[in-house]
Amino acid sequence: MEQSPLQPTPVGALRFNTDSSKLEYYDGNQWVNITSDSPEAQTGGARGVAGGGWTPSVVSTVKYYTISTTGSEEAFGDLTRGGRNFGACGSRIRGVFGGTFPQAYQATIDYITFSVTGNAIDFGDLSLGRTGDGALASSTRGLFAGGYSYSPGPTSAVNTMDYVTIAATGNAKDFGDLANAKEFNNNPGCSSPTRGLWMATASPSAGSSNTIEYVTIATKGNTADFGDISDTGTRSSGGACSNATRALYGGGANPTVLNTIDYVTIASLGNSADFGDLTQTNYHMGVFSSSIRGVWLGGRNPDLTNKIDYVNIATTGNALDWGDMYDQIALFATTSNGHGGLG
Fold first, then answer.
1. 220-250 b/e with 16+ CB inside 10 Å = b?
2. What is the domain extent for residue 14?
3. Structurally, how many domains does the chain consist of?
């Protein structure tokens, strides 16, 4: 006779998921895949990608970077459309890009396979087309939040949150709502394997804010308050990254352009603390991470820049020079196959 599983489920419990055909363990909040995959096995190291952007014309190009090295940018391929102001997230296998500007492509979702260079492939559509959405992911699920929608009805910032299963293709589904309608002009989302955070924002209706919102990625629902970016009052258009325990937010404007980096411990709640400084004031940049490094790329200060900075996430201190992007570029989407949501 089959016995019922232990309730409540103990941390570290194992199960075989017959839907995904994967072995999983319980981390206290959700079931997490047990996998032998790693960025090293897939691509020779954690790989960051940057797609689209504004140069000041919109582009479709995707570039990639080996995060553990410095100074090397390589061509990857092209997105299915040129655009700017859209969100990207990823698993160890796939990177997913959703929304964009101009308006004709606002609902489009593309994907790439990190280990294979080439052009992006159509994934599906967002539930609501928009630009300026912020994205984050766990190892299985990608979330796209907020943005600025041109249809249906009057143009406005939205509080919509969608999710996709990264290993599948298809249209996004409703996850819940942000606490307030927000447009993200950058890359504000980051995660641990359990939690997703959106760090500060810019909104046409409410202006800048310093709020941090979070969700449990495995559980659909609305965001809750995490705390505030505490060093500068209101702040917008910076970039966030994380390892499995710590989230960083660097750059932005209030409206003075900043070089400040803040950090929070993802498993707790509270306001951010000072981490250090970027090498220059910057906003509208891209950012991605491995389990060790956080990397900020391009942006504006206010002119377009091609500078790349990096920090060691586990320590505090000022950023170091990583190298340069080939183009001076801003408002592009970034993700990696080694970020904090992957453990």
1. eeebeebbbbbbbebbbbbbbbbbbebbbbb
2. 1-34
3. 2
